Amino acid sequence: MTNTWWSGAVVYQVYPRSFFDSNSDGIGDLAGVQAKLPYLKSLGVDAIWLSPFYPSPMCDSGYDISNPRDVDPSLGTLNDFDSLIAHAHETSIRVIVDVVPNHVSREHKWFHEALASPPNNKERKRFHFRDGTSDGPPNNWISVFGGPAWTQVTEPDGTPGQWYLHLFDSGQPDVNWTNQEVIDDFDATLRFWLDRGVDGFRVDVALALAKDMSYANREQPQKLVDAIRLDLYDPENPEASREVREFLIDSPIFDRDEVHDYLRHWREILGSYQGDRFAVAEAWAYPTERAMEYARSLGQVFNFDFMVVPFNAETLHVTAKRIITNAIEFHASPTWVLSNHDNARVATRYGGGAEGLAKARAMALVCATLPGSMYIYQGDELGLGDGFVPPESRIDPIWQRSGQTNPGRDGCRVPIPWQSQEANFGFSTADKLWIPQDASWTPIAADLQESDPHSTLNLYRQMLTLRHDHPAWNDSMAATDLTLDGSLWFIERAHHVICVLNSGSETVAIDVEGRVLIASNPEAQEWEDLASQTHMVSLPANSAVIIEKNSQPNPQVEI
Ligand code: BGC
User: Fold this and answer.
1) 19, 113, 386, 418: which has the highest count of C-beta atoms within 10 A?
2) Is 282 a catalytic residue?
3) Whose CA is nearest to atom 3 of ligand 1?
4) 232-250: per-residue pLDDT in tens?
5) 243 in catalytic set
6) Which helix (H) or strand (E) covers residue 281, if one does?
7) What is the extent of the structural domain holding 486?
């Protein structure tokens, strides 16, 4: 594994529209992110990843981009971006931005040009335009968000015309990566942001760029897209889940070998800039080795497994072992992800309430201990669960495109509660927010957590300070031993610190040669057992502790 800043970084995902609103329009913005830099500094993150803030008609909350080299007026200006990045760098926080190579917005100038051109003109060849068949669309492919992956256009002369491909919403036409103009334009986008000082990129649906250009029908087309839906992964039934994901093999739309040519090219661009710029790929490929290929081509890939496996020491152990082994084999750094803007928050996924939160806190310590990079989704440091969003306020296209059967992802995008006693929990002074907040959040607002030593916010702060300052984490390549004992999982780093997770339903006492540095549950206790002269630690159910061993660290061994 290369020893770069990002291979062991703590990266905080900012979903700008829901972070902090500086201009009272009910939508978070870039100046709002800048205003919260002191908070992020006090949290102890190394970098922030900004979800899209580019001009967009917001069919998919900004992942439908009409101009990838500007800022949406509702989120600010390029000056705001420059100011944010300058201030972030002053406080030693790096900035990575989302890029969306698979598709643009229906409002992108290229798409307007395509609509104004006759079929087969070069303006259409930047996209996947095809004639329909007697059944309607050119083939039977399905959109990830539901419904057909094709939408018919009206030709300039007013007649019903060709169809264009969109793997996501109809407002997100896929671009054609076999077209050199598309390649060149994306290079220009990367360089635009690199020149403005970004430290890296998160590459949206990196596995989707290349398509089967014969556009042949496929059997079971729904399964082709279900294969990347994390919400369809059934942790209780790994065999069935494997079958779901096997549709990623030889897919006409995902994880085709040609994708890696584009990724390797971008890596060369990154390498031509000073300062270890990097990119992390969103690529839910199967099997795991295929996903790791994205790290080989681009630098890093998200290991999403912790977002789907159950809270169970054995499963977590097997999963982490596999991820670390793969990372070693591919000279990559593992990435630990508990939540993001596309999936239920970790506290909700673990059942919500006190138990969900206890498990989420324990997993935060686990992820902070494991070698590699840790990605934190905004609000997880407050222990937030998904907010309830009433049907009439849902804006995620998944809700409409699924015929209102799948509520979509708005619940994990509810704006952050900063101040318990202020309107909109201090997120905004507007009358109406782009997504309404959850009235039950008063007790978990950030201001109340500041003064509570046992709050999730302070747990995260202590944990990230520890990770930053303690010698066992000095080198992200430190040796890691993973062992399992019933419901207990031991993660030992550099033979110096151990994180112990108790995923069982009973409190367990363990003897340790060391002292507890941090506990996810304040009821964890340590004492000397005089009879056996051993130091004991009791771990409540669903909790984790990080222990510093008495002995000195061994020399570090590269993974
Ligand atoms: C993003 C989603 C988005 C989709 C289409 C995903 O990978 O994370 O939020 O809806 O790509 O751009």
Assistant:
1) 19
2) yes
3) 63
4) 777 677 788 888 889 999 9
5) no
6) strand 278-281
7) 479-558
